[in-house]
Design goal:
Layout (H helix, E strand, L loop, with lengths): L3 H6 L1 H9 L7 H37 L5 H33 L19 E6 L12 H8 L2 E2 H8 L5 E2 L1 H20 L4 E2 L5 E2 L1 H7 L19 E2 L4 H6 L5 E3 L5 E10 L18 E11 L4 H19 L3 E5 L11 E9 L4 E10 L3 H6 L2 E4 L4 E4 L1 E9 H11 L7 E2 L13 E2 L3
Parallel strand pairs: 4-8, 7-13
Antiparallel strand pairs: 1-10, 2-3, 5-6, 8-9, 9-15, 10-11, 11-12, 12-15, 13-14, 16-17
Helix pairs in contact: 3-4, 7-12
């Protein structure tokens, strides 16, 4: 959430900056609601002062032996007016909060201005797409040929956008996750964390998935409902919600391997074949909790940690900076890492690394104690996939495929596969 004080003082400037994201800020409605709020708050404060003054006169009236009933009646009337005003004020504040809760983050000054993915900017490439001397197959055909990937069985169980895997591919999927966890905890200094896969609505609100992305969430029928996490970013980041973190405990680096659940609302017809876009998938998620003056250095480190996964797997990739119109709701700046997918002859997203600055922290009331002032201040939060396990599996299968349909195992994964060097049919 943006700073309400900033919104009140710089509404036109913020409107212009948000327009670069394709978001139209309703300045007239905000101005009207804030004007009514201020007027109502002023009236309420005046009545409270009047009631306090009248209350003081009651004691003096009694001390003189006079009947204070008229003053008591006046105090009661004022009290009723205050209650009415406070009720109206609460409604106004809720309306303002609802608007503010739906406003996306402001883009950092270094973010390129643009409308969609066509305006994103390439930062760097690593590796070169491999050359094959045979006809490349996609991961769906490779998995079917091995007899280890079954979409029809998953559809009988759960419908479309699910998969079942067995034997070597199931083990390779698990090996990828284990490798990523070991890399990030042993070499990058993350604390492995186990988190719930079901969370309360306020947790999703804290990281910005609610209310804007309610249609993309799976939820229970409870009242209030629990939500299946769309990413481990949600519970990991919320571990500091409503907390004041001491300076010596920063920065925090947390990693978790979890399933993720998304309805993929609005993505009908996109990537319906295979594992690229599913309702259930797994990620190894990275979260940084840092002091505000460290967050952009942290973004570079976070992105580098995700890149290290692909480098050790020897998978070609590129890093791009998302333009203003293509960034996620809570991000101030985002790098996407895209891995090479041979069957599609293009790079596809496998990780998205974002600095949310204080946007999530304000929603979560997540703060740190600044030793210079001794006062609590908002934290900065960052998140990124380190990386998406299913998409990593797709990339390994397609980049390491052989002419006979077998899959060679990247050297770094072989210890997790009991030394197996190749997955073959049968």
């Amino acid at each position: 959430m943006l700073d309400p004080q900033l919104l009140r003082q710089n509404l036109d400037d913020i409107r212009e900056r948000l327009e670069s994201r394709g978001y139209a800020l309703d300045v007239r409605r905000i101005t009207d609601l804030e004007s009514r709020r201020k007027a109502l708050q002023s009236k309420t404060e005046s009545l409270q002062a009047e009631r306090n003054e009248a209350s003081k006169r009651i004691g003096a009236t009694k001390a003189r032996g006079e009947d204070p009933q008229s003053i008591l009646d006046s105090v009661a009337t004022i009290g009723d007016q205050i209650k009415d005003f406070q009720l109206e004020l609460t409604g106004l504040q809720e309306s303002i909060q609802e608007i503010y809760g739906g406003i996306p983050n402001l883009p950092h000054e270094s973010v390129p201005i643009g409308t969609d993915e066509n305006d994103n900017q390439e930062v760097r490439k690593w590796g070169s797409p491999w050359k094959f001397d045979f006809e490349v197959r996609d991961h769906v055909d490779l998995g079917a040929g091995l007899g280890m990937m079954d979409y029809e069985a998953a559809a009988r169980l759960s419908g479309s956008r699910f998969v079942t895997m067995r034997d070597g591919l199931a083990r390779l999927h698990r090996a990828l996750a284990q490798f990523m966890l070991d890399l990030h905890t042993r070499e990058h200094g993350y604390t492995e964390t186990y988190v719930p896969f079901l969370v309360a609505p306020e947790v999703l609100y804290g990281t910005g998935q609610l209310p804007k992305f309610a249609d993309d969430q799976f939820s229970t029928q409870d009242d209030p409902p629990f939500y299946l996490i769309p990413t481990a970013e949600v519970p990991l980041t919320n571990l500091v919600a409503n907390q004041i973190i001491e300076a010596e405990d920063l920065p925090m680096r947390k990693v978790a391997h979890t399933p993720c659940f998304r309805r993929e609302a609005g993505s009908y017809g996109r990537d319906t074949r295979g594992m690229i876009r599913q309702h259930q998938f797994e990620k190894v998620e990275l979260v940084h909790i840092v002091k505000p003056n460290q967050s952009y250095d942290a973004l570079e480190k976070l992105t580098g940690h995700a890149e290290a996964v692909l480098q050790q797997l020897e998978l070609p990739y590129r890093v791009i900076t998302l333009c203003t119109g293509d960034m996620g709701f809570g991000a101030a700046k985002t790098y996407d890492i895209e891995v090479w997918i041979p069957s599609q002859n293009q790079y596809r997203e496998i990780s998205s690394c974002s600095n949310c600055e204080a946007f999530q922290a304000r929603r979560m009331k997540a703060r740190w104690r600044n030793p210079e002032s001794g006062k609590p201040e908002l934290l900065h939060t960052l998140n990124g996939s380190g990386v998406a396990v299913g998409r990593a599996l797709v990339a390994v299968m397609e980049n390491y495929q052989n002419s006979d349909g077998s899959i060679s195992i990247p050297q770094v994964l072989q210890p997790y596969m009991a030394g197996v060097e190749r997955i073959r049919a049968g």
